[in-house]
């Protein structure tokens, strides 16, 4: 087998973040007297996506993302809030979510018998560690690298330099990253000089960022990696 080290994204790769986010937003909106309509959800997600993209590009900090997004959203609803306080409430709701994606526990259990697995994820450390723990996925990984702890974020080369410096005897030609985000995981892997596997269950068009491999189901991973 060519690969020995597998770097896994978390959200919408091995854990169903969309389901977790839906439940957390519903609870948060209701706490402020709002029904979670498709329009309100889309409005929040647009604001949130734009902020995270600015973070990935190094234009703003992670703290700015999480401390500003709800203030900006609730402004669109004519409601003034203490944005950092709302973020804390949202974080509590979010921490409860750990729905597995695509039987990821069984797939990781099998992969861990053949490869060295690591987590590479942008986000908040407390949330990611707790969700992986609650989902009973932590034992499959040799280490977990969350952007908040590293001081950098995917797709920055510095993030991956930090990761590689802490993986014993790692070789880039024997390493591959698996993730659902073209701009974070796949571009990050390319900037780091490693192969990439794009998890694309919705069959999106990759556009300018071309992965080394593409899969639609996590069950395709082991056969692909054993070649």
From TrEMBL:
Stretches assigned to coiled coil: none
InterPro entries: HAD-like_sf (IPR036412), HAD-SF_hydro_IA (IPR006439), HAD-SF_hydro_IA_YjjG/PynA (IPR011951), HAD_2 (IPR041492), HAD_sf (IPR023214), PGP-like_dom2 (IPR023198), Pyrimidine_5'-ntase_YjjG (IPR052550)
Protein name, entry field: YjjG family noncanonical pyrimidine nucleotidase
SUPFAM superfamilies: HAD-like (SSF56784)
UniProt organism field: Enterococcus casseliflavus (Enterococcus flavescens)
Domain of life of the organism encoding this protein: Bacteria
């Amino acid at each position: 087998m060519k690969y020995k080290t597998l770097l896994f994204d978390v959200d919408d790769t091995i854990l169903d973040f969309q389901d977790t986010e839906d439940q957390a937003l519903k609870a948060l909106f209701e706490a402020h007297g709002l029904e979670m309509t498709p329009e309100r959800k889309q409005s929040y997600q647009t604001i949130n996506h734009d902020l995270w993209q600015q973070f990935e590009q190094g234009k703003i900090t992670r703290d700015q993302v999480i401390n500003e997004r709800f203030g900006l959203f609730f402004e669109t609803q004519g409601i003034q809030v203490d944005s950092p306080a709302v973020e804390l409430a949202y974080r509590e709701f979010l921490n409860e979510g750990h729905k597995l994606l695509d039987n990821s526990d069984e797939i990781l259990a099998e992969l861990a018998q053949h490869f060295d697995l690591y987590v590479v994820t942008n986000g908040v450390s407390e949330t990611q560690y707790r969700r992986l723990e609650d989902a009973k996925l932590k034992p499959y990984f040799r280490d977990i690298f969350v952007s908040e702890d590293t001081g950098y974020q995917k797709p920055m080369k510095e993030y991956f330099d930090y990761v590689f410096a802490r993986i014993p005897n790692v070789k880039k030609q024997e390493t591959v990253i698996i993730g659902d985000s073209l701009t974070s995981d796949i571009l990050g892997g390319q900037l780091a000089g490693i192969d990439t596997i794009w998890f694309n269950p919705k069959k999106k068009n990759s556009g300018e960022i071309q992965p080394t491999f593409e899969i639609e189901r996590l069950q395709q991973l082991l056969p692909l990696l054993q070649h």
